[in-house]
Design goal:
Bound molecules: guanosine-5',3'-tetraphosphate
Structural class: alpha+beta
Distance between the termini: 36 Å
Helix content: 25-40%
Number of strands: 33
Number of helices: 14
Strand content: 25-35%
Strand order of the largest sheet: 28-25-27-26-30-31-29-32
Radius of gyration: 25 Å
Largest sheet: 8 strands, antiparallel
Length: 531
């Protein structure tokens, strides 16, 4: 093996790329900050202030950046931990929830699921986990907020198993909760890690007691130990044993308990990600599978973000490197347009300002500035024609009809929507029955973004109206005749999207069910691959 290939293999084996999936308020932001803290990427210079009644918005992140002197640019955070390069990709939630949130999950190798243990499995977590399932992404689970009164732990595991359809293997087990939270027992290492409240503590300051039968535990918790020992026996009997292969297959999730705000349980998660989560894997492309350790560079775009820097009108295309080595100044081929681009201004997301990338390996994310030529799902290589697959569009759940105030601007509207549709900012459907164009999204903010970009970039004042559509499904059928029959019979519900694909717009759940039953030969799809 050449020295270059050996270097690439070495770098790849030391990379972990993951995202946090959670419902808003479960503690994603808090945990992100703690992960950065434990990795040493940020210092413990006082806790972050100024979160009055709210969430961290992007601007709050900027505030953190200023305070900590490091970029936590909201989209991608890269840090070093135990000799590994870790890429943590943000999954925008709250009002920023959009298709990007889903698509980020196609660019990671594992995910960390954070659950508010007082609430259990919530709606957004279900949606995000379903997306992870498309690629059998391995999931690590963190049950958060044990410093509060939370739900019964066994019941929580049951809920994860039944609702999310993934088996749980508890790695630690909580001792008490709320005011009586004492710490966790590590089933794997047979040791108790004592809890001490306080955001200033790192776990290294924390006492660890070896062995569940250690008399020191009886001294410390004379009232609780008998019950705990019984509970641990029960848990061992009732739950799944840890198994690395089943985790890597996305069938089993290791579960950790703790309190992010108190820094408790965070190091165990980081260690699990380093020890167990996969390094970058083979990726499917149209012609062949691509190994991360190959010598030649390749990657795909999973997200496009407009106006990250208000001073520039450019957009950044986020590309996940899939193989080889990216080097500053190298030529790479934009395969859809069959055009070389000189990647001299590609950025990474490590430091205070967007920093020019010197090199990047599989698992890393690089940002390519562009003026609208790059679309989601586009692949880049050093020349070989390989288009990565598995970067889907997702069935939208919110719909708006779109009109313009000035009918003379119809052309601009159509052009604008076509481009925004191709870019993945929103989905655009043209009903076969004529009538207004329909926009589809998974997050409300997408409509606002589209409205402001139509105004700023295309000079179009668009008006959105509610549309009585519940969901969309792309459909296909091997039998051309049957397909035509279906399209003709249900013309009123059928539309073509920006990529020219047929979609069925269902007014309600019952309608969709009945239609599926009545047309058994038609296959309905919740996602569609980028063309
Ligand atoms: P998100 O990004 O998933 O939306 O969640 P975020 O980290 O913002 O946390 C949501 C709320 O939960 C915050 O409270 C945060 O402080 C709190 N939280 C996070 N981890 C823990 C934990 O381990 N224990 C407890 N008790 N609370 C936790 P907030 O009231 O919205 O903000 P703040 O004013 O308290 O900072």
């Amino acid at each position: 093996m050449s020295a270059e290939l050996a270097r690439i293999a070495e770098e790849v084996s030391h990379r972990r790329t993951f995202a946090i999936i959670s419902h808003p308020d479960a503690g994603k932001t808090t945990l992100t900050e703690k992960l950065l803290l434990f990795s040493g990427a940020i210092q413990m210079a006082g806790t972050v202030k100024g979160k009055k009644g709210g969430k961290f918005a992007t601007s709050d992140w900027m505030e953190i950046e200023k305070q900590r002197g490091i970029s936590v640019a909201s989209s991608v955070m890269q840090f070093e931990y135990r000799d590994h390069t870790v890429n943590l990709l943000d999954t925008p939630g709250h009002q920023d929830f959009s298709e990007d949130t889903y698509r980020v999950l196609t660019a990671v190798d594992s995910a960390l699921m954070v659950i508010d243990a007082a609430k259990g499995v919530e709606e957004q977590t279900i949606k995000l986990l379903n997306v992870c399932r498309l690629r059998s992404t391995p999931i690590v689970t963190f049950m958060n907020k044990y410093d509060r009164e939370v739900r019964d732990s066994l019941e929580l595991l049951d809920e994860v198993e039944s609702v999310l359809k993934i088996r749980c293997a508890p790695i630690t087990w909580p001792i008490g909760m709320g005011k009586a939270f004492r710490g966790v027992y590590s089933l794997l290492n047979d040791e108790v890690i004592l809890f001490e409240p306080g955001a200033e503590k790192l776990i290294t300051d924390v006492e660890v007691i070896k062995g569940i039968d250690n008399p020191r535990l009886d001294q410390l918790f004379p009232l609780e130990m008998e019950q705990l020992r019984m509970e641990i026996e029960l848990v061992k009997g009732a739950s799944n044993e840890w198994n690395l292969d089943e985790f890597l297959a996305g069938e089993l999730t290791p579960v950790f308990f703790g309190s992010a705000i108190n820094n408790f349980g965070v190091r165990e998660i980081l260690d699990a990600l380093i020890n167990w989560a996969p390094a970058p894997q083979l990726r499917d492309a149209t012609v062949r599978e691509v190994a991360p350790t190959e010598g030649k560079f390749s990657g795909f775009v999973f997200k496009i973000q407009a106006n990250m820097d208000p001073k520039h009108r450019d957009r950044i295309a986020f590309l996940r490197v899939c193989s080889g080595k990216f080097e500053r100044g190298m030529k790479m081929k934009h395969l859809r347009l069959n055009r070389d681009i000189a990647a001299s201004s590609v950025v990474t997301f490590m430091s205070h300002d967007r920093e020019i990338v010197e090199e990047a390996f599989a698992g890393d994310i690089i940002g390519i500035p562009n003026h609208g030529n790059i679309q989601i799902g586009d692949s880049f290589s050093e020349g070989e024609d390989l288009t990565f697959t598995g970067i889907p569009f997702f069935a939208p759940e919110l719909f708006r009809g779109v009109r313009i105030k000035n009918p003379l601007k119809l052309k601009q509207l159509q052009k604008g929507l076509q481009q925004l549709g191709e870019e993945g900012a929103v989905q655009v459907f043209k009903p076969h029955s004529g009538g207004d164009l329909i926009l589809g999204a998974v997050g409300v903010l997408q409509f606002e973004v589209v409205a402001s970009r139509l105004a700023a970039e295309y000079g179009v004042d668009a008006m959105f109206e509610s549309a009585s559509i519940w969901s969309a499904r792309w459909f296909s059928c091997d039998d051309r005749k049957k397909l035509d029959e279906f399209v003709k019979a249900l013309q009123i519900n059928i539309a073509t999207d920006a990529g020219g694909n047929l979609a069925y717009l269902a007014p309600n759940r019952v309608n969709l069910q009945l239609t599926q039953e009545r047309w058994p030969d038609i296959v309905f799809h919740e996602t569609r691959e980028h063309a």
